[in-house]
Specification:
alpha+beta
């Protein structure tokens, strides 16, 4: 599964308008986006899972940071956590629900 997620993100990075972003860079951008927009920083593995669920063909790269970030921010939190505490959000995707682990900022 991990290999699939890495390959999916690599495909997205390679398909993105001639840029040469790596999967790690895309994940970092999504983490920075969610931290800014909704004060939540998901783990890298959680971000990779949401990307794979929302963009299974790895062909849609335009707006991926905002698309995934907004999906994570809009998702309900399963347990309230104090700032800095661990929290889980459940993101609904066309391929089913994805649990996103992270921390409140």
């Amino acid at each position: 599964m991990r290999r699939f997620l890495i390959c999916t993100l690599a495909g997205i990075a390679l398909a993105s308008c001639g840029t040469t972003q790596t999967a790690d860079q895309i994940i970092a951008q999504i983490q920075a986006y969610t931290a800014k927009v909704c004060a939540f920083q998901p783990t890298a593995a959680s971000v990779a899972a949401v990307v794979a669920a929302l963009y299974p063909q790895a062909g849609i790269a335009v707006g991926i940071v905002e698309g995934v970030g907004n999906a994570i921010c809009a998702a309900p939190t399963t347990k309230a956590a104090a700032p800095g505490g661990v929290a889980t959000k459940i993101v609904s995707t066309p391929r089913g629900a994805v649990a996103v682990k992270g921390r409140r900022l």
